[in-house]
Structure formats: C-alpha cells, structure tokens
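Run folding on both entries below.
>entry_1
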Amino acid sequence: QECKIQNSSREYCKIFAAETRAVPDFGAVPEIIPLYLIYRPANNIPYATVEEDLGGPCEQYCVTERDGSLVARGTSEVVLKCCTFQHWVYQWTNGNILVTDMEGVGWKVTNVRIATNLKGYLGLKESCFPSLLEQFAATHQCNHYCAILGLKTLEPVKPKGSKSPSTGRKSTQSS
C-alpha cells in the first residue's frame, strides 16, 4: 500500500513538474522518490520496501499533526513548493485527492501520505482521511508559487465522490 501511495503521488509530481517547466521563474520542484517493494523468499519477513538513500536527516515539510490538522513546517522554498504541489493536486483532482505528509532532504521527498474520499483509490478498502480534504480547502494559505501557477483560491467544497442516488432526498416515514 505504501508503495502504491508514494509511487502514485510521484506520478502526480511528475505532471506537476512538467507544468511548472512552462512557467517562467518557477524554478526547481520537489521530486517524490520511488519506493520499491522487494521479495526476499528466504527471509522471515519476505517483503520489504527500499528507496534511495537521501544522504542526510529528513526534514518534515508538510505533516499531519496528532489532532488531525495539516501543517507546513516553515517557509523555505521547498516547503512553499510542497504546499503549492498539494494545492495543485487538490485542484487537479477536483478536490478528491490530497498529498498530505511530505518529508525529505532538499528537493527529494519521501514518506508521503494521501487523503481521499474515493473508495477503492489505490486499492484502499475505504476512503482515507477525507476530513483532511475539507480542512485543507478551508485553511490553505496560497503563496507566491500558487499565484504564479494561476491556482484558484480554494473554497471549501464538497468533493465529488460517489453517493447514493437517494442521498439528499427527504425520507418519508410510514406508520
């Protein structure tokens, strides 16, 4: 599951990087490094994940706190661009997916998590932290990089997940 989440987020990040290359003066973008699943049949624990050595201690850029709030750690260029990437993914997926936790060394990012209201996304049996989607829309502070990408100011919206056709109808009680 971790591999699917990190590698899917990596694909979004590649698209984001391609779009930012067309924007003058945007500069470097974070790169989510690949996470590989390996099979070790002779080991007591036959499956493990491996990734590139980042060469230093990880810094937290965007994290989910214990109280469930999403927080950016600082105002460095990499943190601001991680926040812009979050905004871009949220907008690009119509409010259905958000890359939440991100940490790394320099521009190399790892340990990403997602929030989604899409049941079955990446094989998840249920939606994953959907309250973070609403919280992000309500609390995200656009920065300089959001502006030069032309991202829209977020307003709390209800994500477009699948709902029962009867949702929203008045229920009638019979006696």
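>entry_2
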Amino acid sequence: RRLYFDTHALVCLLEENGFTTQQSEVIVSALVKIMNTNLDMIYKDMVTKVQQEIALQQVMSHIGGVKKDMIILEKSEFSALRSENEKIKLELQQIKKQVTDEITKVRADNKLNLNLEKSRVKELYNAHGRCLNKVQFEQHAQQDRALTQTDRKIDTEVADLKTMLESHKLDNIKYLAGSVFTCLTVALGFYRLWI
C-alpha cells in the first residue's frame, strides 16, 4: 500500500515547529493508521476488476438467454398470429361470398317477382281493357297501387340488404382492425422488451 506523502519530511517539519522526535513519530504513525483505516473502508465498498468482469459476464449471459427466449417467443407468437389472421381472412372471404350470393339471389327473386307482377298487371289490363272507362280507371289505379307497393317492398328489401351488407362490412373492418392492433401491440411489446 502506498502513502502519498513523505513521512520523514513530515516528522522533520513537526520537529522544526517545536515537537520532539517521539511526538512527531507518534503523530505521523497515527496519521498513517488513520489513512490505512480510511483506505480499508473505501476498499470494502470497491469492486476489483476480476469481480467486475465476472459480474459483466454473468449479466451478458443472462441477456443472451433472454434474447434467445424472446426470439423463440417472437417466432411462436407471430406464427400463431399469422395463422389466426389467415383464418380470419378466409372466414371474411367466405362471408363476402355468402353475402354476394344472397344479394344476387334476392335481386334475381325480386326481378322475377317484379316481372311476374308486371306480366300479371298487363294481362289484367288487357283483359279488362274492354270494360268501361270507370272500370279501366279504377283498375289502372289499383294496378298503380300494386306496382308502387311492390316497388316499395323491393326498395325496402334492397335497403335492408344494403344495411345488412354495411353492418357485415363494419364487422369485418372491426375484426381486421382488432387483429392489426393486436399484432402491433405484440410487436411493440417485443420491441420495448428488446430495447
């Protein structure tokens, strides 16, 4: 252990200022003891380079283990999310196909019903065309009412189908947004853990 002052020079300085040789040596030895005890206290709290390197290697090995675990978790979680997203996409495509099929069926049925109604109205009009003007006007009014009612029915059914289609679209968008936000949340969580 090194002393960072000259003890002999300190003894000489004390003797010059009126201390005896024995007093000067006692004071210097007391100062050396105090410094040694202070250095012992300081060294107790300090870490050697070897201990620091061992601790650093332990921390690095723990970080390496955590990195491996995170990579494994990331691969398994992302593969699970991808498969879930693929399933949702397939379900959405099936729902879209079903909705479009239903819409085409309803449109075809409505067109058929409309054509049947029109042909029936035309037949009634031709059959009763020979009747009196009053009867013709009354029948014509009844036919117009029937046509407007069928048009209203068709319009309401088309509007109902449109609202149903919009609600399905909104549900699909919600599911897609939820899955995208779930993926982003998991990715940000891994990113935050990584950093």
